[in-house]
Amino acid sequence: MNRRILLVGAGDVGLRAARELLTQGDEVWALRRHPAATEHERLHWLAADLGEPETLRGLPRGITHVAWAAAPDARTAQAYARVFTDGVKHVFGALDCGVLQRVAFVSSSAVYGEHGGGPVNEDTPPAPPGHNGRILLEAERWLAGQGLPAVALRLAGIYGPGRTQLLDRLRAGQARAPVEPPHWANRIHVEDAASALVHLLTLDDPQPVYIGCDDTPQPLHELYAYLADLLGAAAPAVGPAPAGVGSKRLDNARLKSSGYALRWPDSRAGYAALINA
Length: 277
Hints:
Elements: E1 4-8, H1 12-23, E2 27-32, E3 44-47, E4 65-68, H2 77-94, E5 102-108, E6 119-120, H3 131-145, E7 150-155, E8 157-159, H4 165-171, E9 176-177, E10 184-185, E11 187-189, H5 190-202, E12 209-212, E13 218-219, H6 220-231, E14 237-238, E15 249-250, H7 253-257, H8 267-276
Parallel strand pairs: 1-2, 1-4, 2-3, 4-5, 5-7, 6-15, 7-12, 8-11, 9-14
Antiparallel strand pairs: 10-13
Helix pairs in contact: 1-5, 2-3, 6-8
């Protein structure tokens, strides 16, 4: 029997995941405030606001899988809580959870905090330094506490087509990075972020948490210098580390051992393809 999937949040990652699911023959409903009229003809759109529970009345019955790829529309604590505190409770309060077989929840490696450039895996205790990681971790724990068949995908920084802010800053000479001590950065291509979400949504007997990143954590100043050279721009100046992220080297061994093969294992090649395109 085909899976009946509710995609919560149909932005870049969500829509890429939806296309993969549709090619597998799944029935997919995509929920967001303003549906896109030009998307795949077999994608069922649902117009709803996660912060307004009355808009979630009448969700399809018999949903077997939920892919949560929603994102807040601002970086404030209030915006995060609206999506990941209120929104999670509103959606699962409106669903028939008795028939759910899997919930795949897109979270963030921001839950881990600062580790001085050291290695981090799924067994590393979370210590989120900012409201984003704290609220995401609370949402993960709420899902687990409801007894739902949930798995969290903690993504590194996403890059890919349409995500050119860093390249624009490098071209303009506005990017900065620390050198001593170096700040270790982690990346995942948007294609891998979406495909890893689909993989975990359909994986038999998954672990409760997976880190989603590529194979090449790098000191931020080295990555920036490499990209500046590709762009023909000046090498970036020394500056402070990004706030609220933490320096760490993420380990993706659990995701790869589950059978997922990265399409873009090295962000340097991924960025080069983006620049060339």
